[in-house]
Amino acid sequence: MRSRISFRCPGCNARLRASIDFIGRSCPCPKCGVEVQVQPLPPTEEAPILVLDSGLVLPEARTK
Ligand SMILES: [Zn+2]
Question: Which residue has the higher pLDDT, 52 or 28?
Answer without folding.
Answer: 28
